[in-house]
Write a structure and sequence with these properties.
By secondary structure, the chain is of the alpha/beta class. Helices cover 40% and strands 17% of the residues. It folds into two domains: 11-49, no CATH class; 50-137 and 177-336, no CATH class.
């Protein structure tokens, strides 16, 4: 039996029970701005707008002000991957958790216990951040969201519809998962703030004015940035790319794992004070922790994530097909 609930300006997940609780399909309907999702339960999940999100333009002013004043600062963004790291095991089944670790680290993904320090340090990075990007909506009923996420996460071979539904829940759990770790002074904004900063030209301005620009990335973008900003000293620190998007995996198993090996080595350099100036970071969940350490060492860290892929010419996300690139485009100026 299908149960449907409507709410103005809300997402409503109607869960559909059939055949002993197996998830059968997901229906997505559009009616007055409301989406209805059907899954394997008699419960109804409601998604509502997250509150207290600052507009990108306000965040950009805070970023630029920190750079002008040379004030230690970190901006990080949390997405569905961070939701999985933070939510395990309460909201995330072990099978789902290991799937995500494999997406990040490939054949280096090990038992869940190995990644406990990653979660602990990610929580601290959130507490330390001046700006945290999160999703625009949240779940209304945490317990129902937990039950549904664990049920779906336990399914070994998810259909595409099941994957979509589970991912919708993971994004909307972020508000619940990050709020306990936020400082009162922290600013919340959209997790897409990296796209906004690229499209507005802020990243271009920072690269031009930084003096010293550090990069932590899986992409080799140093030469492109040096050509675009000859007056800026650029230092690049390569880390393994996200395995899910790696096109050449030959030798991956024999290479040094990002976590904990490369991670630990880079943290030593950061704590030694080798990251003065501005640092752009694109390094998955580890990148949030790098940002925190750079701020603690007196630097300015900005998590720009997949914008590094944009600069490298790698189309790893759907938004890249329509976004307006600014940083490496000649003759463009930041928005006023």
């Amino acid at each position: 039996m299908l149960t449907v609930s409507y709410a103005s300006h809300r997402y409503v997940a109607a869960l559909f029970h059939r055949g002993g609780g197996d998830v059968n399909r997901l229906l997505q309907l559009r009616l007055r701005g409301t989406s209805i999702f059907c899954a394997a339960s008699d419960a109804v999940l409601m998604f509502e707008p997250a509150v207290d999100l600052f507009q990108p333009r306000d965040i950009e002013k805070s970023v630029y002000s920190a750079v002008e004043q040379k004030k230690s600062f970190s901006l990080i963004r949390c997405g569905d991957g961070e939701s999985v790291v933070l939510g395990y095991p309460q909201f995330v089944h072990e099978a789902r958790f290991m799937m995500w670790m494999t997406n990040f680290f490939g054949t280096h993904a090990d038992a869940p216990q190995r990644f406990e320090p990653l979660r602990t340090q990610l929580e601290r990075a959130i507490s330390d951040a001046d700006v945290v990007g999160t999703f625009r909506e949240k779940v209304s009923d945490i317990e129902k969201a937990r039950e549904t996420a664990l049920t779906l996460g336990a399914i070994q071979n998810l259909t595409n519809d099941q994957k979509l539904e589970l991912n919708q829940i993971e994004w909307r759990l972020l508000d619940h998962l990050i709020k306990p770790h936020l400082r009162r002074q922290s600013l919340l904004t959209t997790t897409n703030i990296h796209i906004k900063m690229e499209e507005s030209g802020l990243l271009k301005t920072l690269a031009a004015e930084a003096g010293q620009l550090n990069l932590i990335t899986g992409n080799d973008v140093r030469e492109k940035l040096e050509a675009a900003f000859p007056g800026t000293r650029i230092t690049q620190h390569r880390v393994p790319t996200e395995y899910k998007f790696e096109t050449s995996r030959a030798g991956w198993s024999e290479s040094m794992p990002h976590f904990p090996d490369v991670f630990d080595q880079l943290m030593v350099q950061i704590k030694a004070g080798n990251f003065e100036g501005v640092t752009f970071i694109g390094a998955g969940p580890c990148g949030k922790i790098y940002a925190s350490a750079i701020k603690d060492a007196g630097g300015i860290a900005i998590d720009i994530g997949s914008i590094m892929d944009v600069w490298a010419g790698r189309n790893t996300r759907s938004f890249m097909l329509t976004m307006r690139q600014r940083t490496l485009m000649p003759g463009t100026r930041p928005d006023a």
